[in-house]
Amino acid sequence: MEQQKLKENIQKLKEKLPVTIVAHYYQRDEVFELADITGDSLELARRCKADDNEWVLFCGVGFMGQSVKVIAPEKRVAMPKIACCAMARMIDQKCYDDSVRFLEEHGIKETDVLPITYINSSAEVKASVGKMGGMVCTSSNAYKIIEQGLESGKKILFVPDRCLGQNVANMMGLRSCVIGDGTDPNEADIICYNGFCSVHQLFTVDDVRFYRKKYPGIKIAVHPECDPSVVAESDFCGSTSQLIKYVGELPEEQKVAVGTEYNLVHRMREKNTYVLSSTKPECPTMNETTLEDVYTTLKAIEKGAVPTEIDVDPETREWAKVALERMLAL
Ligand code: 13P
Ligand code: SF4
Questions:
Q1: For the sheet containing 256-259, what is the strand order?
Q2: Which of 148, 162, 213, 292 is the most buried (most CB within 10 A)?
């Protein structure tokens, strides 16, 4: 079906079904444009919970749809594509348990550790964190959540994104390490798991220097999933919503190069906005969802048989909810 026809059919189905379409900022333009709710990970989790419709049709990556099901189990959540974030895939239950064991082998008892997981992780990992007294964070509240976690007087085990963990540690002037980097975790306040986002690794210090040389006075704004060396040379670091706000408030003539996913950067501002990379930084999994998938999923909801409905087993849900709600309460 051609795109215009697809859009019309989607609109018609939307009007007759109890469905709210939700899209993360990294979705393709044509999908993003038809969403009722858009936002960063934190905003989407909050707003889906407060939404009245029976169904949430979530255009994003797997952990985002799962998080809605965890915090609002009464809702029915469908994803046009259950695409799994590459970073979230880097840690499972076993890797998490191994990390806790690694700390124990270095004399750091489980009771002396407060785990914090980035929302980019599976419900199973969130549940393990919840059971150990820990909580979830997103890129927009990581500083606040880690600051709160440190009040316990414990060391923080931060999973799975080593960059976000280290960037927050640097902002706070704290010591951090990455599991397996050969340093002693006893010397660190924040011990990071060795996960990362392959898309945000595309932005390098060379890119920052290239743009600064080419356009003297340019601002550099990056997402905290970027390497700490890149963040150190940038003017601003923030979540997707925070980047949108920062760029939106710059004077029109101010040039800015942005280090985050392409779909968001190119729709941020018409003029004087550059992608901070010579390689197109596309998130393969975010880009998997197409208009065709949205249409097919709406048709499935209409028929009452939805193969891509999200479910999380009750025990996992219970503990993952504890970890997510500790974050939402802050
Ligand atoms: P935000 O929470 O900033 O939207 O980030 C989600 C994400 O996956 C970034 O790569
Ligand atoms: Fe995951 Fe990176 Fe894609 Fe974000 S950009 S969804 S962290 S793979």
A1: 236-237, 219-222, 256-259, 273-275
A2: 162
- Residue 25 three-state SS: coil
How far is the centre of ligand 2, averaged over its atoms, from the C-alpha of 86 (Å)? 6
What count of other Cβ atoms lies within 10 Å of the Cβ of residue 45? 23
In the reported structure, the alpha carbon of residue 90 is separated from the centroid of ligand 2 by a whole-number distance in angstroms of 12
Q: Supply the mean pLDDT for the chain.
A: 96
Grouping H, G, I as helix, E, B as strand and the rest as coil, residue 167 is helix
Q: Any idea what DSSP says for residue 309?
A: B
- pLDDT the model gives residue 285: 97
Angle in degrees, 0-180, between the axes of helices 142-150 and 162-172, rounded to the nearest 10:
70
Q: Which CATH architecture has domain 88-197?
A: 3-Layer(aba) Sandwich (3.40)
For a mutational test of ligand 2's pocket, the pick from 89, 90, 120, i.e. the residue with the most ligand atoms closer than 8 A to its C-beta, is 120
Reply yes or no on whether the pLDDT at 3 is more than 90: no
What's the CATH class of domain 3-84+286-312?
A: alpha beta
Q: Which atom of ligand 2 is nearest to the CA of 285?
A: 3
Left if phi > 0, otherwise alpha if psi is -120 to 50, otherwise beta: which for 162? alpha
- Cross-strand partners of 159: 117
Q: Which fold has domain 200-275?
A: Rossmann fold (3.40.50)
| Residue 287 CB contacts under 8 Å (≥ 6 apart), including other chains | 26, 28, 263
In the chain, list all ranges with CATH 3.40.50.10800.
Answer: 3-84+286-312, 88-197, 200-275
